[in-house]
Design goal:
It is built from nine helices and five strands. With 239 residues, it is α/β, with parallel strands linked by helices. The protein folds into two domains: 162 residues, Rossmann fold (3-Layer(aba) Sandwich), CATH 3.40.50; 69 residues, Helicase, Ruva Protein, domain 3 (Orthogonal Bundle), CATH 1.10.8.60. It has a five-stranded parallel β-sheet, covered by helices on one side.
Amino acid sequence: MGTTETVKQLPLSMWLRRGAGFDNYFAAANRQVVESLRHVAANENERFIFLWGAAAVGKTHLLQAACHAATDRGEGSVYLPLREAAQFASEMLEGLELMAVVAIDDIDAVAGERRWETALFDLYNRIRDGGKGSLLVASRRPLAELDLALPDLQSRLSWGLVYQLQAMTDEEKLQALQQRADSRGFELPDEVAAYLLRHYRRQSAALFELLEHLDRASLAEQRRLTVPFVKQVIESARE
């Protein structure tokens, strides 16, 4: 299969969330990372970035935000989560150097698999040598701990910018929840945000998902978000 044909058959938006953007990511200690990714998405400056950090620090959100930003300016982009690698073959990487932004998530999911590592190595070289776009790669582990079977791939990934994403403090999570609520057009009182942090899973992705659920419940019942109402909604969802 030719490279152009491969690109045309890619489900380019299959894993992209519509709401993932730079503006609704609460940067906190990760402002420099966000700024660098904005430049990459605008086809400026650095073309290769490696992100790593624990679960729920925003790696996926930022990769997808870069893809959306490229699409918004009329360029092609693709986001591939390698935790789903069983659903597609490594040949899916052929032709992606034609894209403005290629975002590869969960590289640690294929670490040690020489077929995938070789395909990623070749993609990196094609983008560097003749491609027009940028390559973003994310992992839960730092490069030195990836246990890659292909030393040349590890070397290539270290050539660009390497960032560790920092987790938010509880105070930052509270601010992030209120910022997300404001972007959705409703108010999240301090006491409600604090209640969510005390009584619900503290991972940011889970909190944001709950916030969307509470927003829908509030609209459906025409009620403001109060602690008793939030408690009622959460308990109903668990039944």
